[in-house]
Design brief:
The chain has about 700 residues and is of the alpha/beta class. The chain has 16 helices and 28 strands. A twelve-stranded mixed sheet has the order 7-8-9-10-11-1-2-3-4-5-6-12, with helices on one face. Strands 17-28-27-26-25-24-21-19-18 form a nine-stranded parallel sheet, with no helix packed on it. Helix 7 packs across helix 8. The protein starts with 13 loop residues before the first helix and ends in an 8-residue tail after the last strand. About 40% of the residues are buried. This is Leucine Rich repeats (2 copies).
């Protein structure tokens, strides 16, 4: 494959490249967050499968301008990253497998989008595309839903996109042609061959996933990480051929509305060395097709703040002098990609009905717009958390004294502040202007009030039904399971209140020390040891034994864990306490932890041993006071904190300004959600001044109108 355009010096950028144009080149399948039910019927079976919102394809005639725009974005993102001088380290894998891959002549497979890295079982195949590869550098990607075929010759740097319904062909030649292939499903084939190489044996970025049996075939798995790109692959131990490959990429938090988003592309139904006709990879325009030649600018200089400024200027000009509401990478309302789509749609009539000169002018305009958006994205991807990037949307072009963004280029106390008149000022941290009231939608100004407190959740692909859990165990596919929600399964729910469907619900007196009638020395969770790739576990409101806690602590790959409302029992039952929390110091991969509805005093300092913990949920936490706040302040990497206490009138559960001062010690804290429950002494209205670098948000549920 051509080394000139595959960004071989910077493999860690391939994930960002993919995500940068995801919303334009593909139809995304974002899983909607489902808020946890506040009052659950403890003995009822609840179908809690998250809904998936799949956007329907637009009229195919509009794909022309959108794809031209996407090509510009991709080419500029590639160019914008080309000179970052990030060192490239080579690595390898199982020698026999790698040697076999080097001899592959052709591959035919299917690629789909996944939130978890596992194959989606849904019958909706909108995101499934057929990919064919012919060595050394030919790719063909077929999308039946959109009625398109994209063919790329990486070696000759030619690309053609065929749209069958409109009988049109978009032709791109030069470095940009190969760059378009970077974001395509064919990227998985290229990534597989780069990660699984003979010269990468015994490297730190390569780990064994063990073995599993799938469909009677024994598979051996490996996970390889090069920079920011992760490839997970399973191979037939007899044929040494790949059976399933997944590639992960991540959208940074500051480009995803505050929360980093991980996504996967999964390759399956893999056929190797099949007879594939070279004619299928011709980049010649078929007879009867109209040719649309696209000349994409190719700027390989490093992206800089000036590129962001130019993008903001163009967005304001195209959007009635209004800057974007957010700089997220998706096409949500008010984002640069949404404004860009609106801009392209406005030119569609000119393109479809105009003469050759007018059509060329329309293409030129969208390419220029796309170039600006792409280079701005390239600069945003270079921003790290320590650069303290802040964007304040909703401003008007030339609005007086209105900051729209600031950041610290060298991650120190020196900042650059961009104003709405597009001038830049250099200031120190102490002289940053006051944060403006940023607008997050066209009709409502954003202030410290949010609609609701965020809740812990697992991806939509999580197993929430006992039958599916047992099926995975029965078929030996435990390793494919990454997320389990046991708290939603009636088979694990225990309650002293017995209820049968159809009976009248009546108030009953409950014993707070009630415990299940089973051996407190046993563990119902021993089976978790079979799920060696488990990354998320929801145990909310379950009764657990000490043995259960030990079993949870042995799941060393856990990244998300909910212990909300759990009770531990031996001679009697009690809420989770600080001593028991110490068991989880082994979970060094843990990123999100939900300790909502617990009431232990002390113990939060035990979490300081978790280096990756960045989000902590303490909703309905009954002992929020100055002492517990001080404990939270020792968590070095905490970025998001949810405080939603109960019993707010209890003097022992209040927080004063003295306690909140300790939060300043959490240097990486970005977002603080503060719940309101009754007459609480926490000085919510003064929090922004106490914590000027933290985005403080408070929900409205339960708050009186004066709030």
């Amino acid at each position: 494959m051509s080394q000139e355009t595959e960004n071989s010096n910077h493999p860690e950028l391939d994930g960002p490249l993919k995500s940068a144009v995801w919303a334009v080149l593909s139809t995304p399948v974002p899983a909607d967050a489902v808020e946890r039910v506040k009052q659950r019927a403890r003995v009822l079976a609840v179908d809690s499968q998250s809904a998936i919102d799949r956007k329907q394809p637009r009229m195919r005639s509009s794909q022309i301008l959108r794809l031209c725009l996407a090509a510009s974005i991709l080419a500029i993102v590639v160019g914008g990253f080309a000179w970052f001088n990030i060192p490239f380290t080579q690595s390898s894998v199982y020698a026999q497998v790698a040697e076999r891959l080097e001899k592959i002549r052709s591959i035919v497979c299917y690629v789909q989008f996944s939130e978890t890295g596992a194959l989606q079982q849904s019958q909706d195949q909108f995101n499934v595309q057929k990919v064919s590869y012919l060595a050394p550098s030919l790719h063909r990607i077929e999308n039946d839903q959109l009625g398109t075929i994209r063919i790329v010759d990486r070696e000759k740097q030619n690309s053609i996109l065929l749209m069958s319904e409109s009988q049109q062909a978009i032709v791109v030649n030069g470095p940009a042609a190969a760059a378009m292939d970077v974001n395509s499903p064919a990227r998985l084939i290229e990534s597989l061959m780069r990660h699984i190489r003979v010269d990468r044996a015994r490297e730190a970025g390569l780990v064994s996933l063990g073995t599993q049996t799938l469909g009677g075939v024994e598979l051996e798995g490996y996970e390889s990480t090069l920079g920011g790109e992760t490839v997970r692959a399973w191979f037939d131990v007899e044929t040494l051929l790949p059976k399933m490959v997944a590639l992960r990429f991540e959208i940074p938090a500051h480009m995803a509305d505050g929360n980093a988003v991980r996504r996967w592309r999964v390759m399956s139904k893999i056929e190797v060395d099949v007879d594939v006709s070279p004619d299928l990879f011709s980049t010649e325009v078929p007879v009867g097709y109209e040719t649309l030649a696209v000349d994409i600018p190719w700027n390989q200089s490093s992206a800089e703040l000036a590129d962001v400024i130019e993008m903001l200027r163009l967005c304001a000009v195209a959007n009635d002098s209004k800057f974007p509401l957010r700089l997220s990478v998706n096409d949500a309302l008010g984002s640069p990609l949404a404004i860009q789509s609106k801009f392209a749609a406005a030119l569609e009539k000119q393109f479809n009905e105009g003469n050759d000169a007018e059509r060329a002018a329309a293409l030129q305009k969208v390419q220029e717009f796309g170039s600006a958006v792409g280079r701005a994205m390239a600069f945003q991807f270079s921003i790290k958390p320590e650069n303290a990037w802040n964007y304040f949307g909703g401003a008007q072009l030339n609005e007086a004294d209105r900051p729209i963004l600031w950041y610290s280029p060298d991650a120190d106390d020196n900042f650059k502040v961009l104003y709405a008149d597009l001038t830049v000022q250099d200031v120190t941290r102490d002289n940053l202007p006051a944060k403006p009231q940023a607008v997050v939608n066209p009709s409502k100004a954003r202030n410290s009030i949010r609609v609701s407190t965020p809740n812990f959740s697992l991806p939509s692909g999580a197993i929430r039904e006992y039958a599916l859990l047992e099926k995975a165990r029965r078929e030996g596919t435990q390793f494919n399971v990454e997320y389990l929600s046991l708290g939603w399964m009636p088979e694990f729910i225990e309650s002293q209140i017995q209820y049968k469907p159809g009976e009248e619900i009546v108030m009953q007196v409950v014993d707070p020390k009630w415990k299940p009638q089973r051996d407190p020395n046993s563990s119902r969770l021993a089976f978790l040891g079979e799920f060696t790739n488990l990354k998320g576990l929801d145990l909310s409101h379950l009764y657990l034994t000490q043995a259960d806690l030990d079993q949870i602590a042995s799941c060393l790959k856990l990244e998300r864990l909910s212990l909300s409302g759990v009770k531990v029992f031996d001679s009697s039952s009690h809420r989770l306490n600080g001593e028991e929390l110490a068991k989880f110091s082994t979970l060094r991969s843990l990123e999100l932890l939900d300790l909502s509805q617990v009431n232990f005093l002390g113990g939060l300092t035990r979490l300081a041993d978790l280096p990756n913990l960045h989000t902590l949920y303490l909703s309905s936490f009954e002992h929020i006071n100055d002492a517990s706040i001080a404990e939270i302040s020792v968590l070095p990497n905490l970025e998001t904190l949810v405080l939603a206490p109960v019993y707010g009138t209890n003097p022992e559960t209040t927080v004063t300004e003295t306690g909140l001062e300790s939060l300043k010690n959490i240097r990486r804290l970005k977002t603080l959600f503060v719940g309101y429950h009754g007459e609480w002494t926490l000085p919510i209205d003064r929090l922004p001044k106490l914590l000027p670098d933290v985005d403080v948000r408070s929900p409205t549920e339960g708050a009186p109108p004066s709030q």
